[in-house]
Amino acid sequence: MRDPAPWQKKYDHMLVLALLFGLMSQYLFVGAAAGVSAVLFVGGFYGLFFYSIKGRMGGFEKWQGQVRSGWLLFIPIILLTLTYVLYNNLLFRQLNLFALFGLITAQTVLLTSSSVKPWYSGIFYTELLFLALIKPFAFVKVPFSILNDRWRGTEEKKTRSKLGRVMMGLLLAAPILIVVIALLASADEIFLSWLLEIPGVITKFSLGNAIWRLIVAVFFSFYAFCYIWGLLFSKAIDTTETAAVNPQAAVLKPSGRIEMDPITAGTLLISINLVYILFVFIQFSYLFGAANGMLPEGSAYAEYARRGFSELIMVSLINIILLMCGLHLVRRGSAAAEWMRKLSLSVLIGCTIIMLVSAYSRLSMYEEAYGFTQTRLLVHGFMLFLGVLLAIAMLRIWKEHFSMGKAYIYVTITAFVLMNCINLDARIAANNGDRYERTGSIDMAYLSTLSTDAVPALRKLQAEQPQLEQLGAVIDKLQEKSQRHSKWQSWSVSKQRAK
Predict the structure, then answer these.
(1) Nearest CA to 478 among 452, 497, 446, 443?
(2) Which of 66-80, 202-216, 441-455, 480-494 has the highest average model confidence (pLDDT)?
(3) What b-and-e string marks burial along 74-94, b requiring 16 or more CB atoms within 10 Å of the CB?
(4) Candidate from 66-80, 155-169, 331-345 with smallest mean pLDDT
(5) What is the DSSP letter of 260?
(6) Cβ contacts of residue 348 below 8 Å, gap of 6+?
(7) Which of 319, 356, 370, 469 has minimal CB crowding within 10 Å?
């Protein structure tokens, strides 16, 4: 592949500027009302826009004439933007959001001649809606294709310094680490307390705020890039190969599969694994009871053990996504790089399995404190399912020709059938009965929402615990369910046993 032409390199700069625009946007608006931030936001967008359209991005067909009306629209745009600095009328602040969006869209379309319809015709505004709300989503793959094109690179790029690829790995790891560290800190008080001891790192930690900032940054980055790209090109697929010969064609190589540089991928995995190894150390302490002496002052071990299982499940799902990317989206390198990739993925799986074991234990303690429900038992099953998938993935890492897809399909079908056959409601009733014997607490209201599958277990509990007078009403209610749809076509063993 040839070295990118100067006009092609500008796409890289355009993408970088879009990412910076997204980061700036979340900093300006998340947690703060619009004010002078509106001026900076609009100014940042126009900086990205005019940089992108300069010279039609490499000498493609020239504009057919920039409409004077487009330049005149700067007057209302500037004035409306300044209202956020000058005034504080809530109604107009909300209305101006839509007004500015419409005006900026109209101006950018006029300045780029993206519509041949006159601006005063009704069809022009129909095209505005299409260009602003629908067309950008046709180009969502373009930023990834640009990154893929640069990661593959030319022979000269392959000789670039390893430091640059390491920095790219750290850059890619940063947003993932933000989400992962936020989830882990929310899941474990000891881990959070250790983080808070690092001066200035997470002094104002907030899981929701971190995730929301990331979502806002990604949204503004991708939307701004894809919207401007849609103004520049009429087709959703562009190739660098054909663009060099025919400027009218696409500028990006069609992506069969995105492949990450092995050094970049290794840096990303190692960065995340370092955080996981620290967290796993805490989990081992928790699993063996030693965490009791490590808790922050005022924290109870029982409450610490019960919390955090949902966050650990989310982290495990993130790790599975990283695992799939590491298996299929990393370009094969030298023997040493390949060994490091496999080792990093194995560490990732090992840490994830320990997190699942910890989450499983925490959920068990949570059920002991608050009772057994269908959702909680399903989560138990889901964690076991994930554990099997991770074991299969570990085998696939070291055996290249092992068909992981076939194994996953078999395991998924088997797991689904098993969950259907274990008689979940009966197990819920039995488990809650056992819990009552240990704790003296039971949720009758929830038991009454179960299906007729639970009746035999509830009858057994009624015989063993005759003091539970409300249990009779629960059984009667479930028996009433068995009388419904009494036609022979609706007959089932469960209903018959309930009768």
Answers:
(1) 452
(2) 441-455
(3) eeebeebbebbeeeeeeeebe
(4) 155-169
(5) B
(6) 269, 272, 273, 276, 319, 322, 323, 326
(7) 469
pLDDT at 61: 43
342 Cβ contact partners less than 8 Å away, ≥ 6 residues apart: 397, 398
Q: Which residue has the higher pLDDT, 286 or 63?
A: 286
Residue type, 474: V
Cα–Cα distances (Å) from 238 to 143, 227, 247, in that order, read 12, 15, 10
d(CA 383, CA 360): 7
Closest C-alpha among 345, 340, 292, 284 to residue 320: 345
pTM of the predicted structure, to 2 decimals: 0.53
DSSP letter (8 states) at residue 121? S
Alpha-carbon distance values, 494 to 112, 247, 263, 313 (Å): 68, 69, 58, 33
Place of tokens 């965490």: 291
- Tell me, what DSSP letter sits at residue 130? I
Between the CA of residue 279 and those of 174, 179, 194, 273, 314, what are the distances in Å?
17, 14, 10, 10, 15
